[in-house]
Design a protein that fits this description.
Chain A folds into 2 domains: 27-128 and 250-263, Immunoglobulin-like (Sandwich), CATH 2.60.40; 130-241 and 269-276, Sandwich (Immunoglobulin-like). Chain A has 2 helices and 17 strands. In chain A, strand 5 (84-90) and strand 6 (96-99) form a beta hairpin. The two termini of chain A are 28 Å apart. Chain A is globular, with a radius of gyration of 21 Å. In chain A, the strands form 2 sheets. In chain A, strands 12-11-14-17-2-3-6-5-4-7-8-16 form a 12-stranded mixed β-sheet, with helices on one face. Chain A has a 3-stranded antiparallel β-sheet with strand order 9-10-13, with no helix packed on it. Chain A has helices at 2-13, 220-233; strands spanning 17-21, 33-42, 52-58, 74-78, 84-90, 96-99, 110-117, 120-127, 136-143, 147-156, 164-170, 178-183, 195-202, 210-217, 236-237, 252-253, 262-276. The two termini of chain B are 52 Å apart. In chain B, 4% of the residues lie in helices and 56% in strands. Chain B has 788 residues and is mainly beta. The chains are: A mainly beta (278), B mainly beta (788). Chains A and B meet through helix 1, strand 1, strand 2, strand 13 and helix 2 of A and strand 46, strand 47, strand 51 and strand 52 of B.
């Protein structure tokens, strides 16, 4: 659907005009705590992943991307039997908390994050979700409004479970990664019919470029969150955009509910491949 | 109800015992035989009068004796007839068009005087000639956009579909083309409108005081009448413009008895497709086809068959194909039972289709709706003081929320038909126009509307918390998962709604040329178009009321003052206030596209709007036009369902996306000579309410704007000036062929109006940025129109 929206915008752009502007009203900020706590575990890394980081910042005004860091937090993570699975301590870099004793989680188990900062306690829970391997990566050329390279990532949709995927693509011409998330409601789980290509279409893809492709297994609640978040983060506004709103994650302030934090706590298994464009 | 009706007929029948007779007939254009709507028919000595209805029919009862009847219509020569009334009389009148009508010739002021005293308020009428004079984007005359020059009517923003009346949403307007409902009024996603101006006669917009005949939408009724076709000679007209070409053919099938009308418009195929892509097979175009056949069987019976078909087509190298549009067909039978009882029976089919094929994803998608409506309307003219309209109608609706299917064998998409929905919407009404005295005129009515939601293949059942779940801890709304799915036979009623909709208006004439008016109306709306984009898009799907979605109910009151200055100028001032119950809004972050259970992302709230409208108009003379000003407020509120829920926007009132505090239009036409005619249109309005980020953070390496409360900020004010000049070259003014050039400049001082703001992150530097999207800059255009 996103591509469709782009085409509409492209159609508009032929009779319309887009200028960069500065809006003074955006220089104000309503400060909120942001907790970025995604525990990503490489499926095919030989050794267990023992290091994880959590980032605490405050929101900044729209044009200012020097996010104020939040120090002095106490962070713990426990499993279903309330046993600690990681101890996070603040690193020399303010607002970055690192654990080096992270215990590889068990697929399907629920984990709990507890953060105490500025006298308030925040908690969150998520299920560790697995991912399938990529079968192969191929490419072809398609003609849209011009010739475009299309990269196909072939996977077998896992049978018997609801699957939620997060795709991350890193390209040399972009300084920021590009994301897409998906549930498997419209795709088959029948044996023999569950083979799919996920597609990257970008007119900037050129021969000999290296692109990094990562697929994360994500929980249902994380998928819901990312659907909303990515719709806002990757170009928002415009005549056909969804009306924007605050995106709340799974983090709960147990001391003062109204002083909620943004961000999300998740545990995701991932697979990663680098592909050279032919 | 039937008993009540009969009773009323009896009572009124008994009230006139003295000897009176009825004059009845149809008023037509002498040149074309086209019926004329809204013509004043006045008895001179008593200055009692009536106007022709939408079929040109009138009926007028007077005492026995000599009378002078004066017939007047703007743009036509006056017609006066002395008549000695000794029996019921048929008087069909052919009015001659006054080709000099825009010069300072004295024209009867009766038209204004009749409307000043009538209990009709909050209504604007526009003839197609006026619509055509308004300078338009790229010279493409736009019927829908022309009404935004009227007070109380705005659009959310430039290039956005639909229109908003008195702070109402775009889906709350009933748009009727020859009585058939048009569900989407826009071409090219709102840049242009579906109605081809060449095909229409006139339009009437009810912003309030809506007669009981109309129902089903709560904001307004836009009643558009198509031309019937010339009954005497074969004629054509058309035009060649920058956007489209038009051709209309009309003429008699049987002279004076039957005629046809056929009008087509098609935009050019390479519209907006840059020339830089010559090798690709890309098209983007739209077309409209309007047609009508009418057959005057005899003085008492007429048949009309009319139709409309329009489509937008976008195709990018066959990998992306998008088609959408309306189709309507309508068969009507006018029957005059006797000089005092007029009737019309209509069978109307209406259809809206939306199709999308994405080859690179491997799927086809289509959605839409269709309905069949049968209605029977009557007007009983008792005497010169009372006439009663009554009727009944019933519509069967079928909604297709969407069907997805693979477009080739290799596609991995699973075919899925979202459960089709069905409903029957019915109405029964009575509407009385009654003149109490020379000073007081009343119009009162009652509509009983009934909506039966019929069965469907897959109805979702939720637990006791309903389709929307509330997470008390995180304070967010989430979609509930159905606990069961049941199949209900289409012929079974699963939910019924009944509403009584009273309507009332009164006019009190202060003098012969000034009056005060007041009105109250209640209206119910059972179909909802839920859009979470700034403006409705063609993908948006109409949803019927049912177990999870309640009908919207609005109550409106308005009071107004009208003054006519010697028939040269007129002033209308109105204030209105309205409330809406059960206005739906989507929860934060809702995704509505292809949403199979739309009830899971909606909450029910309320809306209100109030405002002041002023219109100062000079209708006649070389220099004519109007100034309209609206001061208004439009808000909505969605509280939580329980005290602990936050609702939408913390349960506080917030601006609707189309709330415009100030809205000014100045429209001026100047007829300089026989050859040259100049028109201009200036618009100034408060910027659209928008939601801006109140903060920003980083997540997984991308920057995420954190948005504040809904619609608390505003885009900068919107304004522009458009001008047009029409030139009629001498050599194109012979009897057989007439031609004219229209030169126009839209947005002449090239104001870069803000259509919307794009929030993004520069992908190379990672720096956040904001971009202004402005749609129409200065746009000159040239059009050639011809008639033969």
């Amino acid at each position: 659907m996103k591509k469709y929206i782009y085409l509409l915008v492209a159609l508009f752009s032929l009779i319309s005009c887009v200028d960069e502007v500065t809006i003074d009203e955006l220089n104000k900020v309503e400060t909120r705590l942001v907790i970025e706590a995604h525990m990503d575990i490489d499926k095919n890394n030989g050794a267990p992943t023992t290091t994880q980081t959590i980032k605490l910042t405050n929101t900044s005004s729209f044009y200012n991307q020097n996010y104020p860091t939040v120090s002095g937090a106490t962070i713990s993570m426990t499993n279903q039997t309330n046993t600690s699975v990681a101890t996070f301590t603040e690193t020399t870099e303010a607002g970055i908390y690192e654990a080096t004793d992270f215990v590889t989680p068990s697929i399907g188990d629920i984990y709990t994050l507890t953060i105490t900062v500025n006298g308030e306690v925040y908690t969150a829970q998520d299920t560790y979700t697995s991912i399938i391997d990529i079968n192969e990566i191929t490419q072809e050329t398609v003609t849209l409004t011009e010739e475009v390279i299309q990269v196909n990532i072939n996977i077998d949709n896992q049978i018997g479970v609801d699957n939620y995927y997060l795709f991350q693509v890193e390209t040399p011409y972009r300084n920021i990664p590009e994301y897409g998330n998906l549930d498997d409601k419209l795709i088959s789980e029948k044996p023999g019919e569950n083979n799919y290509d996920f597609v990257i279409l970008d007119d900037e893809l050129k021969k000999d470029m290296d692109i990094d492709i990562t697929i994360y297994g994500i929980s249902n609640q994380y998928n819901n969150y990312l659907s909303k978040l990515l719709a806002l983060a990757q170009e928002s506004g415009g005549p056909f955009a969804t009306a924007p709103a605050t995106i709340r994650g799974n983090i709960l302030n147990t001391t003062n509910q109204d002083n909620y934090a943004l961000g999300f706590f998740s545990l995701n298994q991932f697979v990663k491949k680098t592909y050279k464009i032919k | 109800m039937k008993k009540f009706l009969i009773l009323l007929l009896l009572i009124v029948s008994n009230t006139y015992a003295q000897e009176k007779f009825t004059i009845t007939g149809v008023v037509k254009d002498a040149g074309s035989g086209e019926t004329l709507i809204g013509v004043s028919i006045i008895e001179k000595s008593s200055s009692q009068g009536t106007v022709t209805n939408e079929y040109g029919f009138y009926s007028f009862t007077l005492p026995k004796g000599e009378h002078t009847i004066d017939i007047s219509y703007l743009g036509y020569n006056n017609f006066t007839k002395k008549i000695n009334l000794t029996k019921n009389t048929t008087l069909n009148i052919d009015l001659k068009e006054n080709l000099e009508s825009l010069d300072e010739v004295v024209i009867s002021t009766y038209t204004e005087k009749v409307s000043i005293k009538k209990a009709e308020m909050s209504v604007n009428k526009m003839k197609v000639q006026t619509v055509k004079q308004i300078p338009a984007v790229l010279g493409e005359v736009d019927v829908i956009k022309s009404i935004t020059t009227l007070p109380g009517v705005t659009t959310a923003g430039e290039g956005q579909s639909g229109f908003n009346v008195r702070g109402g949403a775009a889906d709350q307007n009933l748009v009727l083309l020859d009585e058939a409902t048009i569900y989407n009024t826009s071409h090219l996603f709102g840049l242009f409108s579906v109605i081809n101006a060449d095909a229409i006669k006139d339009l009437k917009l009810y912003k309030g005081g809506v007669p009981a005949k109309f129902g089903g939408r709560i904001s307004s009724v836009l009643d558009i009448h198509q031309k019937d076709g010339n009954k005497y000679d074969f004629h054509g007209n058309g035009g060649i413009g920058l956007i489209s070409s038009r051709l209309t053919l009309e003429g008699p099938i049987v002279k004076k008895k039957a005629s046809f009308f056929l009008s087509g418009r098609r935009s050019y195929a390479d519209l907006f497709i840059p020339l830089a892509m010559p090798d690709t097979d890309n098209t983007a175009y739209f077309y409209d086809l309007n047609t009508k056949i009418n057959w005057e069987i005899d003085n008492h019976n007429k048949l009309y068959l009319s139709g409309y078909f329009g489509r937008d087509v976008f195709s990018f190298a066959e990998s992306f194909i998008n088609t959408y549009g309306n189709a309507v067909g309508n068969l009507r039978w006018n029957h005059v039972f006797n000089s005092q009882l007029f009737s019309n029976l209509s069978l109307i089919y209406s259809n809206y289709y939306y199709g999308l094929e994405l080859d690179f994803v491997g799927f086809k998608w289509n959605s839409g709706l269709q309905n069949l409506n049968l209605q029977y309307d009557f007007t009983k003219y008792y005497n010169d003081n009372v006439s009663v309209n009554f009727g009944i109608n019933s519509t069967f609706h079928q909604f297709n929320p969407g069907k997805i299917e693979p477009n080739n064998e290799d596609s991995g998409i699973i075919e899925d038909q979202l459960s089709k929905k069905h409903a029957i919407e019915s109405g029964l009404y009575i509407d009385v126009e009654q003149k109490i005295s020379d000073r007081i005129d009343l119009r009162y009515g009652l509509r009983l509307s009934a909506f039966a939601r019929m069965g469907e293949k897959e109805k979702y059942i939720y637990n006791e918390n309903g389709p929307v779940l509330y997470d008390e801890d995180l304070k967010i709304y989430e979609k509930a998962t159905p606990i069961d799915t049941v199949a209900i036979n289409v012929s079974k009623i699963q939910k019924t709604f009944l509403n009584l909709e009273p309507r009332f208006s009164i006019a009190y004439a202060l003098t012969d040329d000034s009056s005060i008016k007041g009105s109250y109306q209640r209206m119910a709306q059972y179909l909802h178009l839920i859009s979470n984009t700034q403006s409705p898009s063609p993908l948006d799907i109409w949803t019927p009321s049912g177990d999870y979605i309640k009908p919207q109910i609005s109550d409106q009151i308005a009071v107004g003052y009208n003054k006519d200055f010697n028939g040269k100028y007129s002033l209308t001032a109105e204030v209105f206030g309205k409330t809406v119950q059960n206005r739906l809004d989507y929860v934060d972050g809702a995704d509505l596209i292809a949403q199979e259970a739309i009830e899971t992302v909606l909450l029910s709230g309320k809306a209100r709007a109030y405002g002041l409208e002023l219109m100062f108009k000079k209708e006649l003379g070389k220099f004519n036009g109007w100034i309209s000003y609206t001061l208004s407020k439009s808000e909505q509120k969605t509280a939580g369902r329980t005290p602990t829920e936050i609702g939408i926007n913390n349960g506080n009132w917030y601006n609707t996306g189309y709330d415009k505090t100030h809205d000014v239009t100045i429209l001026a036409n100047y007829k300089a000579s026989k050859r040259w005619n100049f028109n201009s249109n200036f618009t100034l309005q408060t910027g659209q309410p928008v939601t801006y980020p109140t903060g920003n953070y980083s997540y997984r390496g991308v920057s995420v704007p954190n948005y504040g409360k809904r619609n608390t900020f505003r885009l900068p004010a919107y304004h522009r000036l458009d001008v047009a000049a029409t030139y009629k070259p001498k050599r194109y003014q012979n009897k057989k062929f007439k031609g004219e050039w229209v030169f126009s400049v839209y947005n002449i001082y090239n104001r870069q109006n803000w259509s919307s703001v794009l929030f993004g992150q520069d992908v190379e530097t990672g720096q956040n940025k904001t971009e202004r999207l402005s749609i129409f800059g200065v746009l000159p255009s040239i059009t050639f129109n011809f008639k033969f």
